[in-house]
Design brief:
Keywords: Metal-binding, Repeat, Transferase, Ubl conjugation pathway, Zinc, Zinc-finger. It catalyses: [E2 ubiquitin-conjugating enzyme]-S-ubiquitinyl-L-cysteine + [acceptor protein]-L-lysine = [E2 ubiquitin-conjugating enzyme]-L-cysteine + [acceptor protein]-N(6)-ubiquitinyl-L-lysine. Pathway: Protein modification; protein ubiquitination. This protein is α+β, with helices and mostly antiparallel strands. Helices cover 48% and strands 10% of the residues. It is built from 15 helices and 16 strands. The strands form six sheets. It has a four-stranded antiparallel sheet. A three-stranded mixed sheet has the order 10-9-16, with no helix packed on it. A three-stranded antiparallel sheet has the order 13-14-15, with no helix packed on it. Helix 13 runs parallel beside helix 15. It starts with 9 loop residues before the first helix and ends with a strand.
Length: 524
């Protein structure tokens, strides 16, 4: 090779020979993204992004920024990640700061280094990482002007990707510039295609991971879909896979509980607080080894596994001798008010928790069992449509099922809400005892009426409509339509009362709940 022969850098390789690099994620982005389901509401727009349409969704927004600022794709991506994929914020900053400052703050260099693009292969540089003198052919210079050998760059990229980074900065001290992702991919591909593909995947998924408006569906196992919500993020959505969830906290849909309330309820159900109350009421600690002992007989003279005898009534150590009426040398008949109050308090807390949990669980189980009604109703409608009836519109059955599901869900989660709202932990000193008792009475009265009508609607929808005459079906239709409207109205009124009255006694900014949607949760 002559001294005047030129070498091609990874940057040149990317821009002129890009077809040589093929990734598992390099697919045609001209997909049906524009045809994905979009649901428009007053406060937000819900869109589903499938695994197939993720690249198209990302590319569309990248192209907008590329066209606006006349920059490359990796630079547009770095800018959008910096602004959490909020294009409106990026536009505002552009108007306030200008193009150059906007880019520099995000780690994007838009300066030209044309004099450094092509050098003689005989040119040597010193890599300031490994301090080796290497040919310019095996070194790479980034947009910021810093140049290091390809081995050091590649090692740095591999470590960053293993740490989960998609925006990899220059290795030079105090340099904030983001490395060209095309160069990153090429250098990694030459060493390990798996790491290169992992980087490519991280770039693709950055549209979700670094985006405040898009979140993965939390279904288990993961369906692969993401949901985009524009507007109020305190909302509940239904993914195409059928999973209902709260977009704000990514937990299961839990309205009328706020996200904070639901977090407290989940902790209550999963931690040992309920068990601890049961233990306090039903066990005693051995005075010698301090292990918990449960009494399995009527005698109050108990023996621990360690051999220690003690009195069940007071917990004090005793000797082995005892009779039916007394324990030798031991008396504990004096009233201990504090101990009794602790036990009674624990018993009341346990009974209260079990009351609310039992009803929450019962309605949750009913909701799950009633999900099979949808298929049964569709099968019945197919049979009825083949009849030669005057009225062949049976959409009221589907509407009734949706009203039942919505109201059953609200009813189920109203019990965790009541447990926390009218308990002592969350609302202590927020309401007077009389005010709390009054609100609790009204809430439970409304809850009872909703519960009664939900059960009535559930029983009606279990009927075998295909075995009824046309006259009977018409009569049942009137009942079902009326009940559907009633449960929807009760659900809406309960939700409104909770939102505008009960939660106002707490911190409204903390305890926000999803807006009420008649009949169904927002479907993406």
């Amino acid at each position: 090779m002559g001294n005047d022969e030129q070498c091609i850098s990874p940057r040149d390789y990317y821009y002129f020979e890009d077809e040589e690099y093929v990734s598992d994620y390099d697919v045609d982005y001209e997909s049906d993204y524009a045809d994905e389901p979009v649901v428009v509401h007053n406060s937000h727009i819900v869109t589903v992004i499938t695994a197939e349409s993720l690249l198209a969704a990302q590319t569309a927004e990248l192209q907008m920024v590329m066209d606006l600022l006349f920059i490359k794709e990796y630079q547009a991506r770095a800018l959008l990640i910096y602004y959490r994929w909020k294009i409106e914020r990026l536009y505002e900053s552009l108007d306030q700061k200008g193009r150059e400052r906007l880019c520099l703050e995000a780690g994007v260099s838009i300066s030209d280094n044309k004099d450094l693009d092509i050098l003689s292969s005989s040119t040597l540089i010193t890599c300031n990482v490994c301090f080796e003198d290497v040919s310019i052919c095996v070194a790479t210079r980034m947009d910021c002007g810093h140049c290091f050998c390809d081995d050091c760059w590649t090692e740095n990229f591999a470590v960053a990707i293993k740490d989960g980074k998609s925006r990899i900065r220059c290795m030079a001290p105090r340099c904030n510039i983001i490395c060209d992702e095309a160069i990153v991919k090429i250098l990694l591909f030459q060493r390990d295609q798996k790491i290169a593909d992992r980087f490519e995947k991280s770039l693709l998924e950055s549209y979700v991971e670094d985006n405040d408006l898009v979140k993965w569906c939390p279904s288990v196992p993961h369906c692969g879909n993401a949901i985009r919500v524009e507007g109020d993020v305190v909302c509940e959505v239904e993914c195409k896979c059928g999973f209902h969830f709260c977009f704000n906290c990514l937990q299961e849909a839990h309205s009328p509980c706020s996200c904070q309330m639901w977090k407290l309820w989940v902790q209550k159900c999963h931690d040992e607080s309920g068990t601890a109350d049961w233990i306090l009421v039903n066990t005693k600690s051995c005075p010698k080894c301090h292990k918990l002992v449960e009494k399995n007989g009527g005698c109050n003279h108990v023996t621990c596994k360690c051999g220690q005898y003690f009195c069940w009534l007071c917990g004090g150590a005793t000797g082995a001798e005892h009779s039916i009426n007394s324990i030798d040398g031991h008396k504990c008949n004096r009233f201990d008010k504090e101990t009794l109050e602790n036990i009674e308090g624990a018993r009341r807390r346990l009974q209260g928790y079990l009351h609310y949990f039992g009803r929450y669980k019962a309605h949750t189980d009913s909701l799950q069992k009633e999900s099979s009604l949808k298929g049964k109703i569709q099968a019945i409608i197919s049979i009825l449509e083949n009849r030669q009836s005057k009225d062949r519109d049976y959409s009221w059955m589907v509407d009734a099922f949706q009203a039942l599901s919505k109201s059953r869900r609200a009813l189920s989660y109203s019990y965790p809400f009541a447990f926390l709202m009218f308990g002592d932990d969350l609302c202590e000193n927020k309401m007077t005892p009389m005010g709390k008792a009054s609100k609790q009475f009204l809430f439970e009265d409304h809850q009872e009426q909703l519960e009664r009508n939900v059960e009535r609607l559930s029983m009606l929808l279990e009927k075998k409509f295909d075995e009824f005459s046309d006259e009977q079906i018409l009569e049942m239709k009137n009942q079902v339509v009326d009940l559907s409207s009633i449960v929807d109205q009760f659900s809406m009124k309960m939700h409104k009362w909770i939102e505008e009255d009960l939660l106002e006694s707490l911190k409204p900014a903390v305890h926000q709940i999803s807006p009420y949607r008649s009949r169904v949760i927002d479907s993406a």
